[in-house]
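Quick one - inputs below.
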Amino acid sequence: NAGVMQNPRHLVRRRGQEARLRCSPMKGHSHVYWYRQLPEEGLKFMVYLQKENIIDESGMPKERFSAEFPKEGPSILRIQQVVRGDSAAYFCASSRTQSEKLFFGSGTQLSVL
Amino acid sequence: GQNIDQPTEMTATEGAIVQINCTYQTSGFNGLFWYQQHAGEAPTFLSYNVLDGLEEKGRFSSFLSRSKGYSYLLLKELQMKDSASYLCAVRAGGNQGGKLIFGQGTELSVKP
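Output:
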């Protein structure tokens, strides 16, 4: 039973390019969460999705950032026109229901040059 | 607002006991979680409390007092591999659903 799968593990982009981060939740999980982590800081909530629906995007910047969790396929976190300040580790987590614990993926380290 | 506080860093000796405290003020409460995170790795689940009292799991125990907005994680018989960041997180529930709100993490260093 595979865990939460994130890819790529590392992503390098130049300023102005687009970054696409993918997350496949654990089998049977329909709740997906995206978090961002800067060095030596805690996990900052970005967005919470449940199949095809955005439940809570209160932590996501209004511009350049978007997220989706289609009926088929992985959840995607998309960052357009990246800037240096977007450099961080982005973690995805999933849960079977909204009451159960979250399982985390290994994260995508985004570096913007 | 949502606020979760825990010490930034702690140091302890191998074989000893350490207690990591967490206080929280959130708009709702539907459970408190502790996660362990080694540098460059995914957070892994340690414990969950939703009712007052102590939950014990091997060398790790977690305590919750909802009236005080307080929890602690107790690690016994410390090992070098316990050096990691320990994250306290609260699920507010209600219309915020399943998301967890994390504190900044406590970096624990275990010395020989």
